[in-house]
Design brief:
alpha+beta; 5 strands
């Protein structure tokens, strides 16, 4: 009721998640990922950023659950003879890597790393064959364009070819030879 009143004050329409509690847990994880802990032993957790060992508070709903989740996010840490986490929510390890990538990452297992590398090799081989095929098509297209251009320029130049008339020049295609003037050389 308090949350509904706050939402109405802010003129927000409350939406229900229905039975999908993962949405709520993920939103809590996004806010409190810095207060996340990983299971260390039976009922013992260790903070993933500070390394502080802690345990579930006995008043927590997860305390008497029957199983202990691998990863949890908590709101506050109560210090007595031990450190106790209160307001605890079970989260998934992948969510921590997704929502706090600067702090967390997911290590791949050996099998998944092999599968990923094999998939990358297959993708690379497929892309290489596609690239070769495109290059061959491009080369064929260039050759056809070149032949068409030569054909057009060859027929056009033969019909339009004309001789340049220069006075004093022979009609031959050879380079003109300069002739010396007959007469004296020098002064």
């Amino acid at each position: 009721a308090q949350l509904v009143d706050l939402m109405e004050q802010q003129k927000l329409h409350p939406l229900s998640c229905g039975g999908g509690w993962d949405v709520v847990r993920k939103s809590i994880c996004s806010a409190y990922f810095q207060n996340s802990s990983k299971i260390k032993g039976i009922g013992e957790y260790i903070n993933m950023l500070s390394g502080i060992p802690s345990a579930l508070h006995p008043s927590s709903a997860l305390f008497g659950l029957g199983y202990t989740p691998d990863y949890v996010c908590y709101h506050e840490l109560i210090s007595t003879t031990k450190e106790y986490m209160s307001c605890v929510t079970a989260v998934e390890g992948e969510w921590l890597a997704e929502l706090g990538p600067m702090f967390f990452s997911v290590k791949e297992s050996y099998e998944s790393a092999l599968k990923r590398r094999q998939q990358e090799r297959e993708d690379k081989a497929r892309m290489d064959t596609e690239m070769l095929k495109k290059e061959e098509e491009e080369e064929v297209r260039r050759e056809l364009e070149k032949k068409a251009l030569e054909k057009r320029s060859g027929s056009a130049s033969s019909s339009r070819r004309s001789a340049v008339a220069t006075p004093g020049r022979a009609a031959s295609r050879s380079t003109p030879k300069f002739m010396r003037k007959k007469g004296r050389i020098g002064f």
